[in-house]
């Protein structure tokens, strides 16, 4: 049985379902750097012909992680706690018609879903129902519905206040439509802001940035087609426009996200690559003075793909870049006008051209380090930094061979005696722990371990990646 596993692994990798490490720039058929493919679920499995947005939920009771993916005909819910073996739990069908656009956010263990489909409104789904799915995949029903608007392009939620902001509706000139969701299954409309035209996407925060004039206020950062729009939405009865930010060669201001210190707002223009000939262009606004946002610098990538949804986590910017897949950037020196691509996973390997295929969105906020990519054409991808986020010590006195291994792996030391060896699976669980004397080489029987990626820790100091066929 062991002898056929490499062939089986190659077969599965070809169809993008299997755990596949990024080796020599490829994870199976997918170009990559610094990100391993843990698994993929196809659109066919979801019973849909197209994908769109994605978000995530972590169950506060047990820490289980769930991916939420928008589809043409509904929303899929997937348990990714074991990212190598995700479980498709079921789908909430669209409230009205199918649509290419669907957006999902989470508050208080509930998912809130909007769509461009006519009359769709906002669906509310109690995510705690996912704990008791007994016959997956199920067809779910919504737990509540808000009909204060029909179609909406997007939904934004401020989890600190319990307000949802539907944008791109026919109400309020396409500006944010305020919905109180503090009681999730009884959403209540509370007005909106119509003084800055159509809003495509936004982020809303309780402001704790450098501009002390607005400390503690609820501030809306909108991407409004040809500008960024900053609005004080603290008083829902009297929202106040603060300022607009403009930049050159504008085609369509699509979406943006704040750095964690609130000093910069990183945005993408969705049409400038196709219409104006840029490579993937990212515009970084300095928003240290909310009354006067200014362009800090622009970053242009080496590929021509169109940028779509991007999110900041720590000092990294995660960008779903359509045909170029997921691109990850180090933004630790954004103040010095530096932005460096460090990792990528290309879900659309045939081309990086400026067309509307490939990665629609990314969700990088799981504590485990699992990263969800939703792809228009190919479904749901789960990727992760290799070695469970622990950098392999390549300048080391230890070596392991063979790698990949099947039944036995041998560990060599040039200088230091081997005292302990621990092996961890992709979930971070210790699956083997061994103690030794003063030998410079040890053979380890791994025949009882399943095929996949592991981390070997030697003498509690050195980590090595191990692939078992």
Automatic annotation (TrEMBL):
It comes from Aequorivita vladivostokensis. Residues 1-18 form the signal peptide. InterPro entries: Choice_anch_B, Haem_d1_sf, Secre_tail. This is Regulator. The keyword Signal applies. It comes from the Bacteria. Keywords: Signal. The keyword Iron does not apply. Residues 402-463 form the Secretion system C-terminal sorting domain.
